[in-house]
Amino acid sequence: MSSSFQRDGFQSNTARLPLSSRMVLCALRPQLLKSSRCAGAWGRLLQRQSSGSVYSNIHGLNQEEIREKAFPGGSIDLHKHDSGIAVLTINNPSRMNAFSGSMMVDLEEQVSQLENWTDGKGLIVQGAAETFCSGSDLNAVRAISNPQDGMKMCMFMQNTLTRLLRLPLISVALVEGRALGGGAELTTACDFRLMASDSVIQFVHKHMGLVPGWGGAARLVHIVGSQNALKLLGGTLKVDPKFGLQIGLADGVLEGPQAEEGAGTPLQQAENWLSRYIKGPAPVIQAVKKVVLSGRELPLSEALRTEKDVFGTVWGGPANLQALASKSKHK
């Protein structure tokens, strides 16, 4: 059998996979290519995959057009630390950290950086000036108020937040102040959510005559279930830390300023909380995230095959060999 026949046949078979399967393969590409088990047609397939986005030009999304129309204001700041934890800050405090068009473009560019961060293990997403994010800047919304531009903005942000959730990093949203509308959607694009004692998450879209458009509804159902999602969206309920813990939207509550000295700033508390889940070498932590991602998004048979392939990237690796030498399994 010729190599071209094998390659084309394999590509044809893969094209029949569900879209979610193909997107997970994209996310796994860099690590799978490092393994000798991914040689041949499998490796060539992964090399041909594009980024793990939901939409592309064939859906009418032109990212360069989005960049050209981006309404200015604010920034998305990224700081990567030697600890393997990166901090992504939504920075537009004069407008409660609402997203301008240029901030949407900034976010996509910062996610691209994180996708290529080989030493990364964790990510904290926060807002500047003790406020998380109030969604879209209304000035930017008015600038793209026609349905066509609105749909393009929707696809652009769904792409970006889907890629954020699929990063090979364990991520946590540090929610201080308010997370409203698109800001509430942004919290669902992280693996975990930590809430300050006086913070609120609220899906206010109905008040604006809308529904979530950045993928927040779909992700919310996975986090809290369909009934709770209906209550939060239909009732525009305010989720405080107590309610958030009750329905599973919050994973922890930060100690307030009245707590004992030594608790640290909210960011320090979030770093301490996240650190317990990212101990160990970056390739192992990234592999953990990838097998959980495949289990969350793929049918069981495909998730099992993906898990097998990710397993092959760490079996016999430095961390595995060191653990075997030190007999650390039961420590």
UniProtKB/TrEMBL annotation:
It is an enzyme of class 4 (lyase). Its EC number is 4.1.1.94. It is found in: Cytoplasm, Cytosol. It comes from Seriola lalandi dorsalis. Belongs to the enoyl-CoA hydratase/isomerase family. The keyword Nucleotide-binding does not apply. GO terms for biological process: fatty acid beta-oxidation. GO terms for molecular function: methyl/ethyl malonyl-CoA decarboxylase activity. Decarboxylates ethylmalonyl-CoA, a potentially toxic metabolite, to form butyryl-CoA, suggesting it might be involved in metabolite proofreading. Acts preferentially on (S)-ethylmalonyl-CoA but also has some activity on the (R)-isomer. Also has methylmalonyl-CoA decarboxylase activity at lower level. It catalyses: (2R)-ethylmalonyl-CoA + H(+) = butanoyl-CoA + CO2; (2S)-ethylmalonyl-CoA + H(+) = butanoyl-CoA + CO2; (S)-methylmalonyl-CoA + H(+) = propanoyl-CoA + CO2. The keyword Cytoplasm applies. One of its GO terms (cellular component) is cytosol. The lineage of its organism: Eukaryota, Metazoa, Chordata, Craniata, Vertebrata. InterPro entries: ClpP/crotonase-like_dom_sf, Enoyl-CoA_hyd/isom_CS, Enoyl-CoA_hydra/iso. This is Ethylmalonyl-CoA decarboxylase. Pfam families: ECH_1. Keywords: Cytoplasm, Lyase. SUPFAM superfamilies: ClpP/crotonase.
